[in-house]
Design a protein that fits this description.
The chain has 125 residues and is of the alpha/beta class. It has two helices and five strands. Strands 1-2-5-4-3 form a five-stranded mixed beta sheet, covered by helices on one side. The protein is globular, with a radius of gyration of 16 Å.
């Protein structure tokens, strides 16, 4: 580990084994694992999607709760952390993502034409 450095933070929408959609999951996972093997404390920040809630609540601990300070997007939120050695996965729970059953696209179960949610299309946000 480089002198005077203690941790690296990665922000992503995907992480292998948790939120998997495309190649980003592999890059973030492999980078995080390689850095932990070099002795770094690695923190990966991810959205707490609806499909992850049960697992995160079972395996993790609530590590933060509060309100965003953005002047337009004011959300109550919380963070749940799942740690293993030098790797810490931080799942941020906000109303804008906690209902999602997919990462980028609407799932069949979420499809609702009245809300313009069409299976396979991207989320409207």
């Amino acid at each position: 580990m480089p002198e005077n450095a203690s941790s690296i933070w990665l922000v992503a929408r995907e992480y292998e084994g948790w939120a998997s959609a495309g190649g980003v999951k592999d890059v973030v996972h492999d980078m995080a694992r390689a850095l932990t093997e070099l002795g770094w404390q690695v923190h990966v920040c991810l959205p707490l999607y609806g499909f992850l809630k049960d697992r995160v609540f079972q395996e993790g601990q609530r590590s933060w709760t509060g309100r965003s300070q953005h002047p337009v997007f004011r959300h109550e939120g919380e963070c749940w952390t799942v740690s293993s050695g030098n790797l810490h996965l931080h799942f941020f729970r906000f109303s804008s993502v906690e209902h999602k059953q997919g990462i980028y696209t609407v799932t069949l179960a979420e499809q609702n034409p009245a809300l313009k949610l069409v299976h396979g299309n991207g989320y409207p946000d």
